Amino acid sequence: MGDNQDFSNEEITYLTEEGAAELRAELEELINVKRPELAVKLKEAIAMGDLSENADYHDAKEQQAFLEGRIQYLERLLRNAKIISDEDREKGVVTVGSEVTVQEDGQEPETYRIVGPAEANPAEGKISNESPLGRALLGKKVRSKVKVQTPDGDVIVFKVLKIR
Q1: Which residues contact 111 (CB under 8 A, 6 or more apart)?
Q2: How far apart are CA 35 and CA 29, in angstroms?
Q3: Which domains does the chain have, with CATH numbers?
Q4: How far apart are CA 125 and CA 161, in angstroms?
Q5: Rounded to the nearest 10 degrees, what angle do helices 55-79 and 17-29 cross at?
Q6: Cα separation of 130 and 115, whole Å?
Q7: Helix pair angle (55-79, 35-47), 10° resolution
Q8: How does pLDDT run across 29-70, given as a tens digit for each residue?
């Protein structure tokens, strides 16, 4: 027959071990600290009486909706995550979890960590495997050259200098 998991609407998300640990810690904080704090705040706002014009109540309800949405998102993300450990990665080839140093002609080398979209944070040098540069780098080896098209249509060529 068939495997019902093939028909799942939920996508697999790639996470590094470090990224998964950070998301688990956030989830734990939301469930064990933020949710109870918000419940107290909501209870206090309800005790004030007339809810129709109670700004504290409406603010707490809005925060509660956001909090519960974030909890559900993190639970779903972690449930469907494929954790990429150093042992899983092929040596000498760019994969999710790799730290890659690249250089554009005439520019200083730049180092990026290839992560899944949920961990991506370009300001911290973490780029998604689904980004144009991340996608171009996957499977490449040292000395490979990759072409990346920028949003304005320019093409930039990067040379892979180092993979860790």
Answers
A1: 99, 100, 101, 102, 125, 162
A2: 8
A3: 4-83 (1.10.287.180), 89-163 (3.10.50.30)
A4: 16
A5: 150
A6: 9
A7: 160
A8: 999 999 999 999 989 888 887 777 788 888 989 999 999 999
d(CA 47, CA 86): 53
Report the run of H or E that residue 122 belongs to, with start and end. Answer: none
pTM score of the predicted model: 0.74
Q: Are strands 126-128 and 99-104 parallel, antiparallel or unpaired?
A: unpaired
Measured in Å, how far apart are the chain's first and last C-alpha atoms?
Answer: 42
Q: How far is CA 37 from CA 43, 58, 62, 65, 126, in A?
A: 10, 16, 14, 14, 32
Beta-bridged to residue 162, according to DSSP, are: 101
